[in-house]
């Protein structure tokens, strides 16, 4: 987990015990409302089901209730052909609020075209929602939003059952099975979408659903993916940040004139090629490189990062990301955001090695928190005195045994229908776009799955959909992905020699 999300999570850990506010003990109840949104000029009527569905233990005893919101387009006579999208956010410990009311759902929060808060707070129709082509359910794992474990479980048992890479995948797969059965959606084409930590979650779920529940998917969408348990090593790990540094420096006009005068996507291939072909081998050599090699590498890194050669040399060619966010605009008195480097911050002192806070995260919480609390109570009509956890207490989180990238590869190998699409923001420094590409290269060493993998880049950050242009484009890319990966009637799932 990144430092700034960790700070937010720690604050909640101290503020809220694991079993705080067990005010709504009904783990199996929902409310239903209806609505309408115009998407691409066409009115789309829908039904929204909001509430909790249980998680059961091995003996059939309820151990948790997961809060969810399920949108179904009404007037559909045959749901066997209607795709179902199952949506998760990340953290871990983050509610599904982000993609729910800012990306794919029928309502989005009121922000300006670049994603900054405006008042009065609230929501508005989302004319780019994917609800025209698919039904959507937004799922909140334990301790996020209003999801809670039962108060008869002690903290150690809660952590063991719910807080870890593999426990998270296992119980969520069981929950999905129940949901699909209750909603009679077994015949439907199914898709998982996850953002940030939600990407190892849905990657692992793709195989768990196949192997333990015999549920086969059509697609997995990874929004701002993490490393997915794919090893990088020191050399690759240090080198792979450079293309992101170049993108952020380009945005803030800190590159040399010849690079700055190019468009972003015309400039970045030069940096990517240097990273793979020259910088990774240099990093692998470590201190054995000659003085001439070191000086030349420092010159190139400075050229692409917007930092000085002196600073690059002082860091032995390896620029920590925390330092980059502090250093790039230090001479102007600003820091830049981690998850979206378009955002500016103001620190107490210009000196130091890292920013005081994450300006993008505070900005997002500024606009999302009032919007989701208003929307659930007043529009979706779900009423509770529980605290809505934007970030909930999920510590300690067991990160051992993370093979989720390979799990997704294996699921794809077993299921010829399964496709993967990755969506990345160029200015995301937390889960950067070049490492997202690297994931795909390393998942598919044989190259035999590459025709079922795709990558899309956007001129924004971690939550690219906050920028209006990217909201439209990214939703359209999902819409196209769903249409392209829903097989024709009678098309067999088989490999052909």
UniProtKB/TrEMBL annotation:
Pfam family name, one? Peptidase_S10
Does the keyword Hydrolase belong to this entry? yes
Mind listing the UniProt keywords for this protein, alphabetically?
A: Carboxypeptidase, Glycoprotein, Hydrolase, Protease, Signal
Q: Would I find Nuclease among this entry's keywords?
A: no
Coiled-coil region list: none
> Which residues does UniProt assign to the signal peptide?
1-20
Molecular function (GO) terms for this protein are:
serine-type carboxypeptidase activity
Q: Name one GO biological process term.
A: proteolysis
Source domain of life: Bacteria
Q: What is this protein called?
A: Carboxypeptidase
- Organism field: Flagellimonas aequoris
């Amino acid at each position: 987990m990144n430092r700034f999300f960790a700070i937010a999570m720690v604050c909640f850990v101290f503020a809220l015990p694991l079993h705080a506010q067990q005010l709504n003990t009904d783990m199996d109840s929902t409310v239903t409302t209806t609505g309408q949104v115009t998407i691409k000029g066409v009115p789309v009527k829908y039904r929204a089901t909001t509430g909790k569905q249980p998680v059961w233990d091995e003996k059939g005893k309820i151990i948790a209730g997961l809060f969810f919101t399920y949108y179904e387009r009404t007037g559909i006579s045959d749901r066997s052909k209607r795709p179902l999208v199952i949506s998760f956010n990340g953290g871990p410990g983050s509610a599904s609020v982000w993609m729910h009311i800012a990306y794919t759902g029928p309502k989005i929060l009121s922000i300006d075209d670049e994603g900054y808060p405006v008042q009065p707070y609230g929501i508005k129709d989302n004319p780019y929602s994917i609800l025209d082509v698919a039904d959507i359910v937004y799922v909140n794992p334990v301790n996020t939003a209003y999801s809670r474990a039962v108060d008869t479980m002690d903290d150690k048992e809660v952590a063991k059952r719910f807080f870890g890479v593999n426990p998270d995948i296992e119980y969520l797969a069981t929950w999905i099975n129940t949901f699909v059965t209750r909603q009679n959606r077994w015949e439907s084409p199914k898709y998982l979408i996850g953002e940030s930590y939600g990407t190892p979650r849905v990657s692992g779920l793709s195989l768990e659903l196949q192997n333990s529940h015999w549920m086969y998917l059509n697609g997995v969408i990874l929004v701002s993916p993490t490393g997915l348990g794919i090893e990088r090593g020191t050399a690759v790990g240090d080198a792979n940040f450079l293309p992101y540094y170049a993108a952020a420096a380009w945005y803030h006009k800190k590159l040399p004139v010849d690079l700055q005068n190019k468009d972003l996507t015309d400039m970045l291939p030069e940096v990517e090629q240097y990273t793979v072909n020259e910088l990774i081998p240099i990093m692998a050599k470590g201190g054995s490189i000659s003085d001439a090699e070191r000086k030349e590498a420092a010159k190139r890194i400075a050229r692409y990062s917007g930092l000085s050669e002196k600073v690059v040399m002082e860091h032995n060619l390896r620029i920590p990301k925390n330092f980059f966010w502090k250093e790039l605009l230090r001479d102007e008195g600003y820091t830049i955001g981690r998850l979206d480097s378009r955002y500016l911050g103001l620190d107490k002192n210009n000196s130091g090695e890292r920013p005081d806070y994450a300006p993008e995260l505070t900005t997002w919480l500024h606009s999302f928190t009032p919007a989701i609390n208003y929307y659930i109570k007043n529009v979706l009509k779900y009423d509770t005195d529980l605290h809505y956890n934007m970030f909930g207490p999920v510590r300690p989180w067991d990160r051992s045994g993370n093979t989720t990238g390979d799990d997704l590869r294996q699921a794809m190998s077993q299921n010829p229908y399964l496709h993967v699409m990755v969506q990345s923001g160029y200015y995301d420094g937390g889960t950067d776009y070049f490492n997202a590409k690297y994931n795909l290269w390393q998942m598919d060493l044989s190259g035999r799955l590459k025709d079922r993998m795709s990558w899309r880049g956007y001129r924004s950050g971690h939550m690219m959909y906050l920028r209006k242009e990217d909201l439209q484009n990214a939703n359209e890319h999902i819409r196209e992905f769903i249409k392209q990966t829903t097989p024709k009637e009678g098309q067999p799932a088989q490999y052909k020699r």
